[in-house]
Amino acid sequence: MEQVTIYGRSSCGFCVRAKSLCESRNMPYTWVDMIEHDMTKADIADKIGRPVHTVPQILVGDRYLGGYDEFSAYVRALEVVKAH
Question: Which residue in 2, 45, 47, 81 could disulfide with 61, CB within 3.0 to 4.6 Å?
């Protein structure tokens, strides 16, 4: 499993859910707290190469995945593949 990187804020419910999803599935992840690192959405946009309007912003390896909805769909798809 590739490393998951989550850019977000501790006060964000979807950010917390993304972290919990990684933890419950034993997925390796790095949490980047935007407040702690004094990051703006523009800083994240520079890293991922596209505008950022919401958090979390999630990458798997070097591949940009999206927000929580895209990440949870990705995890579900992985589980379907593993089940077969």
Answer: 2
Tell me if the bond preceding 28 is cis, omega within 30° of 0.
Answer: no
What predicted TM-score, i.e. pTM, was given to this entire model? 0.94
Sheet of 63-66, strands arranged across: 29-33, 4-8, 57-60, 63-66
State the DSSP H helix or E strand holding residue 32, giving kind and residue range, or none if neither: strand 29-33
| 1-26 pLDDT, tens digit each | 799 999 999 999 999 999 999 999 99
Closest C-alpha among 2, 3, 4, 9 to residue 52:
9
Q: What domains sit in the chain, N to C, each tagged with a CATH number?
A: 4-83 (3.40.30.10)
Q: Which tokens is 78 given?
A: 């992985």
